[in-house]
Design a protein that fits this description.
The complex is a heterotrimer of chains A (324), B (290) and C (254). By secondary structure, chain A is mostly helical. Chain A is 79% helix and 3% strand. Chain A is built from 13 helices and four strands. In chain A, helix 2 packs across helix 8 and helix 10 packs across helix 11. The mean pLDDT of chain A is 91. In chain B, helix 2 crosses helix 8. Chain B has a two-stranded antiparallel ribbon with strand order 1-2. The mean pLDDT of chain B is 87. Classes of the chains: A mainly alpha (324), B mainly alpha (290), C alpha/beta (254). Bound molecules: adenosine-5'-diphosphate and magnesium ion.
Chain lengths: 324, 290, 254
């Protein structure tokens, strides 16, 4: 009972915090927060695959980028296309790509899975670079109209206003993360966790392992697409570099590792850590990447369980010491 | 010789030379990633670093040959240090650990390079003997490209001989394929790994020096060629030097002829080739392990 | 009418011949023990029947349907459960969650993504009931990997039974157990398989003779004899090959 109360209070506090956030910290930090939330969703979607099936992909940027380009293209070429359908267009494009690829991908595992993704990710990157008339090449697609979020006759929110966009992005991104979290709590989510633990036994309990992996794969791809779509709306620009580059594929792996692998919320912590780090370092140096590099080396050498794992370990140590 | 054929031959030479540089880079990766199973995303960064070292040695001494000697060795030593003090310790975390570490190292090297040398692209002069063309059978061959092809072949042959004809090579192959067994036989496996890693990095270094006069030296070198090298290793088949050679040459030719026929889309060809191979043979053309 | 039959089953692992011409027949409702020395091919026979591998030659017929080459998930859905010689549970999930997965499977809850599994009252109740029946209700929230050896084995066996199969295949359920644990496990098996067809691989002869209605002896990949415990005990070929030193204890046959 107390627990339930506490949970509600926490939810409420979080909600109020988000409402007040732009007022408290201003538009600049609101935008920082949106970027953080986009990467949090991207990494969480990625981790659905890595954390729950153990499949390591080196090419998930293709879903992020496809989502972003899907939304950007829809808004560029169809005048008067509304906001939510544009967002869904991006997610759908990513989901379809995942659906096309999953028969190939779920057949292989391990290193071959990672490399196949590296290959397809690379293919998407050069396609985005070279099919100029569609993708705009290096420059990408930008400057498309961002439609308002409107329920006709009732309300209309101007998405070019950073404040209103902030709230919209929060609803979409946090809503998506919540859906993913809920997903892990359903019967299917249990099967998913079981696959991670012991795929052979899952098979012997009458569940179909490849199909399970395929569903997770498509889900993961679709939500990476949502993250990409919001990114395109937020930046009002998507380029091959941001959308499909290998570093975009590696980003969620790094966020997950730094935040803590094997935990649903790890990637979110990872995104927050990198977000804060970037804010702090840009004040003092242009060499943000140097700092990132050093952090990665530090984490893998000294705190390989990431933030969540390390906190857990410290907590356990603390408790056992208390017990003595 | 009519000009059309001449052009084809010239393009072929370009493709072959690029293919061989790619092979040098990729064969180092074949040793490290394909045979030892260590995912090293800093491999191409070493390649770039070596190109910068080459530039620097030439700036100091004026000798390309000295650069060709020194830059890869220094690069190899840095590789050995990386293996000995960092990579070895994260092996337990599998590819994810190696990925995080080597991406981190890449970023650090890349940023340091920018600090030391800036982001402008720096020219490297071909030594006089290697400049110009030789003419044979009515065709012109640029000497530098011939030199690269020859150098790569020599390295390949020496490597193959060591790996497959000497006791040392046997120990190395045994050590990378069944470390526990060989460990039990009293061979110092970590030392073997360190050496092989060093040789692999050294080869990336040689490739870096070889490419410096062609593409000039700039921070984006790693990006541009690094992915291609990974593709060559993967498509050729893990741990297969022959596969890497074949695919490197195919990629080189696809690249240079692709530019001729589909211009902009040349890189797309290579990725499509790779995607098709991997869809049907996920372990690559000559790969069997997993 | 047999519930399970293998017809001329052969298997080899890249040249190594492990089984040849195995014709196993299991009648509905019986407890059928398979015995034979280590390496005889007992586990391989289980693997062929339950779909781990496809036999090199021959057929597996279950409930009059040919299931040769079907995957484990499909065979389970036809009503055949299996436990493993080497414990194979979900070690990072709790005992309760392990059993709950089996219950979900029985109830056909698979791709449900719209309800929290914790809110499925009847699934929870059934899983808890099973835990109680196997005396694991005290360990409900302990990760399977952290259970004591005996309890872990109980969980292994129970997962095969929790899907409520018509036929259950138990591969050395008492492997590695102490005397007491074995005794307990045998009682558990006896209780849980009441009225179910059971095929059980077992080394402990006391267990075999106390549990089994019929026995098949597998030797060097082929069936040496099949019959009731008394017949097997008296079978000269079996004595020569395997039981040899056990011939002295006659008190089992009356
Ligand atoms: N996956 C496999 N690959 C190769 N040989 C195997 C495999 N599984 C079992 N064998 C061999 O088959 C023979 C029978 O093994 P198994 O069926 O496990 O025997 P049992 O369960 O009767 O002790 C043994 O010689 C074993 O080495
Ligand atoms: Mg066995």
């Amino acid at each position: 009972m107390m627990n339930k109360m506490l949970k509600w209070i926490l939810w409420l506090a979080g909600f109020v915090f988000l409402i007040l956030y732009p007022k408290l910290f201003g538009i600049y930090y609101s935008n920082v927060f949106v970027t953080f939330a986009i990467f949090a969703l991207y990494a969480t979607s990625y981790n659905l695959l890595l954390g729950y099936t153990g499949l390591l992909s080196f090419g998930h940027a293709m879903f992020f980028g496809t989502g972003a380009y899907g939304t950007a293209l829809a808004l560029t070429h169809i005048s008067g296309f509304p906001l939510i359908p544009a967002l869904l267009a991006g997610a759908l494009a990513a989901a379809i790509l995942a659906l096309i690829l999953c028969p190939i991908m779920v057949r292989v595992g391990g290193t071959a899975f990672a490399m196949l993704h590296l290959a397809f990710g690379g293919l998407m990157y050069v396609l985005a670079l070279k099919l100029r008339h569609i993708t705009g090449g290096e420059d990408g697609i930008g400057g498309f109209d961002i439609p308002p979020f409107s329920i006709p006759g009732i309300v209309s929110f101007d998405m070019t206003d950073p404040l209103q966009f902030f709230y919209f992005a929060m609803v979409v991104l946090i809503g998506s993360i919540w859906i993913l979290w809920f997903f892990t709590k359903t019967p299917f989510g249990q099967i998913m966790i079981a696959v991670r633990d012991n795929a052979k036994r899952v098979d012997y309990l009458g569940f179909r392992v490849p199909q399970t992996k395929a569903v997770i794969y498509v889900f993961s791809g679709a939500f990476c697409g949502v993250a990409g779509a919001v990114y395109a709306l937020f930046q009002n620009l998507i380029s091959a570099e941001d959308g499909f580059h290998v570093m975009t594929s590696f980003a969620p792996i790094m966020l997950t590792m730094v935040g803590g692998i094997g935990s649903f919320f790890g990637p979110i912590f990872g995104s927050a850590i990198f977000g804060i780090l970037e804010e702090l370092t840009t004040r003092y140096t242009e060499r943000v990447e140097l700092v990132f590099g050093l952090v990665l080396i530090f984490v893998i050498m000294f705190a390989p369980m990431g933030f969540v794992g390390t906190v857990k370990m410290i907590k356990e140590k603390w408790f056992t010491r208390q017990g003595v | 010789m009519d000009p059309v054929t001449a052009m084809y031959v010239a393009q072929g030479m370009h493709g072959l030379a690029y293919g061989m540089i790619l092979f040098l880079l990729a064969s180092g990766l074949t040793l490290i990633f394909g045979m030892m199973g260590i995912l090293n995303l800093a491999h191409a960064t070493f390649f770039m670093l070596s190109a910068y070292l080459c530039y620097q040695v030439i700036a100091w001494t004026g000798s390309f040959w000295l650069a060709l000697l020194i830059a890869p060795i220094v690069t190899g030593i840095i590789g050995v240090l990386l293996e000995r003090f960092l990579l070895r310790k994260v092996h337990a975390f599998g590819h994810i650990g190696e990925l995080i570490l080597t991406v981190g190292v890449s970023l650090v090297i890349l940023e340091s390079v920018k600090v030391f040398w800036g982001t402008e692209s720096l020219p490297v002069q071909i030594p006089n003997v290697l400049q110009g063309l030789v003419t044979a059978g009515g065709l012109d061959y640029p000497i530098y490209r011939l030199f690269i092809i020859g150098l790569s072949l020599v390295i390949l042959i020496v490597l193959m001989l060591i790996l497959y004809k000497t006791r040392l090579g046997m120990v190395v192959r045994a050590a990378v394929s069944d470390a526990d067994m060989v460990d039990a036989l009293g061979i110092n496996v970590p030392l073997v790994f360190m050496l092989v890693f060093g040789v692999g990095t050294w080869m990336a270094g040689v490739a870096g020096v070889a490419i410096a006069p062609i593409l000039t030296v700039f921070p984006g070198l790693a990006d541009q060629v690094g992915m291609d090298a990974f593709i060559v290793v993967v498509v050729g088949g893990f741990g297969s030097l022959g596969g890497a050679l074949l695919v490197a040459i195919i990629c080189g030719l696809l690249n240079s002829y692709g530019v001729q026929f589909v211009s902009q889309l040349a890189p797309v060809l290579m990725y499509i080739f790779m995607a098709i191979v991997l869809v049907f043979k996920p372990m690559g053309l000559f790969g069997e392990r997993e | 009418m047999n519930i399970l039959e293998t017809q001329g089953l052969y298997h080899d692992f890249s040249g190594l011949k492990v089984l040849f011409d195995v014709n196993l027949q299991v009648e509905p409702g019986e407890r059928h023990a398979i015995i034979g020395p280590n390496g005889a091919g007992k586990t391989t026979l289980f693997n062929l029947i339950t779909g781990t591998y496809k036999p090199s030659r021959g057929n597996v017929v279950f409930k009059e349907k040919d299931i040769t080459g079907a995957g484990p998930w499909k065979i389970l859905r036809q009503g055949m459960g299996r436990s493993f010689q080497i414990t194979s549970t979900f070690d990072r999930m709790t005992a309760f969650q392990n059993i709950r997965l089996a219950v979900m499977s029985t109830r056909g809850i698979r791709f449900n993504m719209f309800r929290k599994v914790d809110k499925m009252q009847n699934v929870t109740e059934e899983a808890e009931e099973i835990l109680k029946r196997i005396n694991l209700d005290g360990e409900r929230d302990i990760q399977a990997g952290n259970l004591s050896y005996g309890k872990h084995r109980s969980l292994e066996i129970s997962m095969a039974l929790a899907t409520n199969p018509d036929l259950v295949m138990l591969d050395e359920p008492t492997a590695g157990m102490s005397k007491d644990e074995t005794h307990y496990a045998v009682e558990l098996i006896r209780r849980l398989t009441e009225g179910k067809t059971t095929v059980i691989i077992e080394h402990d002869m006391d267990v075999v003779f106390s549990l089994a209605d019929r026995i098949t002896v597998l030797h060097h990949g082929t069936i040496l004899a099949t019959g009731e415990p008394c017949d097997i005990r008296d079978n000269q070929a079996v004595k020569d090959a395997y039981l040899g030193e056990m011939g002295g204890e006659e008190d089992v046959c009356y």
